[in-house]
Amino acid sequence: MVAYSTAQVAKKIGVVKKTLLRWLEAGKLPEPKRHENGGQSIRLWTDRDLERARRFKEANYRKGRGRPKKA
Q1: Is the dihedral of CA 66, 29, 12, 7 positive or negative?
Q2: How do residues 42-58 score in pLDDT, each as one tens digit?
Q3: In degrees rounded to 5, what are phi and psi of residue 51?
């Protein structure tokens, strides 16, 4: 199983890490599994989580222009 960090997922889908964290906090994306490492909790993203984030971005953001305009 391949696992990615939040920064790696953000780079692969073309957003900054802060944007990806905002989506998680707002509940727009389900939280990936966390792993405790030396008292520190890290998110481990699977290929399925990565694809889910990519689909969310494609459905909600226009390429090169950020968020779609509200009607």
Answers
A1: positive
A2: 999 999 999 999 999 98
A3: -65, -40
